[in-house]
TrEMBL record:
Its EC number is 1.1.1.100. NADP(+) binds at residues 12-15, 89, 154-158, 187. Homotetramer. It comes from Geosporobacter subterraneus DSM 17957. It catalyses: a (3R)-hydroxyacyl-[ACP] + NADP(+) = a 3-oxoacyl-[ACP] + NADPH + H(+). The keyword Lipid biosynthesis applies. This is 3-oxoacyl-[acyl-carrier-protein] reductase. Catalyzes the NADPH-dependent reduction of beta-ketoacyl-ACP substrates to beta-hydroxyacyl-ACP products, the first reductive step in the elongation cycle of fatty acid biosynthesis.
Length: 246
């Protein structure tokens, strides 16, 4: 087990890539804190992990609320005595072309995807710095590297969390903390499954592998970066995108 006895918080852990990451971490021996806004989703994931013999607790948290995030971190440390891993997975979209995007759309995405990562990262870094070790992983996207039509706000946040990861890697490295980002490509999630078949085919055609990725592909990348196998990897962006070139 590559994460045996590690303690991990996964934000946005109730569905999609976050849910799969929670389950994969538990399979690798981690004690998992499933953090999400939706209590029903949280409980489903926690029960799945418990049924497979793993250990997990759920915490409802709004990543944009510093008080709630600090409480989540504190409760995790109180329960388990430490915090080894934070996966900043929580994120949203509110798409629109530049000339039509409202300030509300901009602020909403920036608040969750950028400010939320900052708040969670900062809170976790304080604990990890005292411990002298830890791993922080930020969810980016190929959209953050190459841009994407109609996603000015989303692209800005996903590029921003890469900048955070690289900056934190420099600041926190001397404290024994590694920080990296993962940039998924087109992934088959409950959201993409609802897209028209022709759109899915177009997404597949962009990859030399002619297929979409799955949440497991991203979760496995997180497992690697969170494990001691990646003990000399920090400040990097791992693109898990099937070779997509935009």
């Amino acid at each position: 087990m590559r994460l045996k006895d590690k303690v991990a918080i996964v934000t946005g852990g109730g569905r999609g890539i976050g849910e799969t990451t929670c389950i994969r971490f538990a399979e690798e021996g981690a004690k998992v804190v499933v953090a999400d806004m939706n209590e029903a989703d949280i409980q489903i994931v926690v029960e799945k992990i418990k049924q497979m013999g793993g250990e997990a607790v759920g915490m409802k948290v709004d990543v944009t609320d510093g008080v709630l995030v600090e409480k989540m971190i504190a409760e995790t440390v109180t329960k388990y005595g430490k915090l080894d891993i934070l996966v900043n997975n929580a994120g949203i979209t509110a798409d629109g072309k530049l000339v039509k995007m409202t300030e509300e759309q901009w602020d909403k995405v920036i608040n969750v995807n950028l400010k939320g990562v900052f708040i969670c990262g900062q809170a976790a870094a304080k604990v990890m710095s005292e411990q002298g070790y830890g791993v922080i992983l930020n969810a980016s996207s190929i959209v953050g590297i190459y841009g994407n039509f109609g996603q000015t706000n989303y692209a800005a946040t996903k590029w921003g969390v890469i900048g955070m990861a690289k900056t934190w890697a420099k600041e926190l490295g001397p404290k024994g903390i590694r920080v990296n980002a993962v940039a998924p490509g087109f992934i088959m999630t409950p959201m993409t499954e609802k897209m028209p078949e022709k759109v899915l085919d177009m997404m597949k055609d962009k990859s030399p592998l002619k297929t979409l990725g799955y949440p497991e592909d991203i979760a496995n990348a997180y497992v690697y970066l969170a494990s001691d196998e990646a003990k000399f990897v920090t400040g990097t962006v791992l693109s898990v995108d099937g070779g997509v070139v935009l």
